[in-house]
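It is worth pausing here to work through a concrete case rather than discussing structure prediction in the abstract. The textbook approach is simple: state the sequence, then state the predicted structure, then interpret. We follow exactly that order.
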Amino acid sequence: MFYTRKNTLGGYKRKMTEKKKDARKDVLLRLRRIEGQVRGVQRMLEEEANCAEILNQVAAVKSAINQVGILVFENHARECIFQILNEGENGENLKEIVDLMGKLVK
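Step two, the predicted structure:
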């Protein structure tokens, strides 16, 4: 069987859609865990826990939320690059990727 560019591209789009759904589930799961961590920090403050322990948990929350940002950015960047390569988009998508990366690393 011969695969035309259109058939191959269609299969790639289906894979991208499946990956997007998996990525969304992963991000939501991570956010739920972060939500639990934040509640834990609140409880620690209410119970007047040791400041070092609280700060350790705050650092863990910051790290986890940074990872969520990276995952969301990676998925969005893939979509933009896909459009650039396959749909002949101008440089607008590339500019968007660069702008978003700048916001993420601040």
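Step three, interpretation. The chain has three helices and no strands. The CA atoms of residues 1 and 85 lie 25 Å apart.
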